[in-house]
Design goal:
The protein has 135 residues and is mostly helical. It is 64% helix and 8% strand. It has a single domain (2-104), classed as Large-conductance mechanosensitive channel, MscL, domain 1 (Non-ribosomal Peptide Synthetase Peptidyl Carrier Protein, Chain A, Orthogonal Bundle), CATH 1.10.1200. The chain has helices at residues 2-9, 12-47, 77-104, 121-134, and strands spanning 56-59, 62-63, 69-70, 73-75. Strands 1-4 form a two-stranded antiparallel ribbon. Strand 2 and strand 3 form a beta hairpin. Helix 2 packs across helix 3.
């Protein structure tokens, strides 16, 4: 059983998937820092607020003795918008990578057209019969 697992784990496709997964996770971190550090502040300039801190307070909470707000219900749409921007950036980059890889692949040559088909044996025999009948 251990040998079968080793054979399975060492297949090229599985290793490629693992490398792709690790690279994707690292790329996600880069995109998240790009969005949080560059895109969100620039969009925040338009709205005069930090994009990640945008929220809609559905129900006000009350502060307890320590100053912590209890019972507040909020919709964090700023976080959602930031994650949507992250997703769009990652999806676009992945699209460009797939498009680039597909462009580098060798295009298969189209199959040659089939050779013209001649008359069948029955047609040839009928022609011979007709020629013999004329004589």
């Amino acid at each position: 059983m251990l040998k079968e697992f080793k054979d399975f784990a060492m297949k090229g496709n599985l290793i490629d998937i693992a490398v792709g997964f690790v690279m994707g996770a690292a790329f996600k971190q880069v995109v998240t820092s790009f969005t949080g550090g560059i895109v969100s502040p620039l969009i925040g300039l338009l709205f005069s607020a930090d994009l990640k801190k945008l929220k809609w307070i559905v129900k006000e909470g009350v502060a307890d003795d320590t100053g912590k707000i209890i019972g507040e219900v909020v919709v964090l749409y700023g976080d959602f918008l930031t994650n949507v921007i992250d997703f769009i950036i990652v999806a676009f980059v992945m699209f460009m990578i797939v498009k680039g890889v597909n462009a580098t692949k060798k295009k298969e040559a189209p199959a040659p057209p089939p050779a013209p088909k001649g008359p069948s044996q029955e047609d040839l025999l009928a022609e011979i019969r007709d020629l013999l009948a004329k004589k």
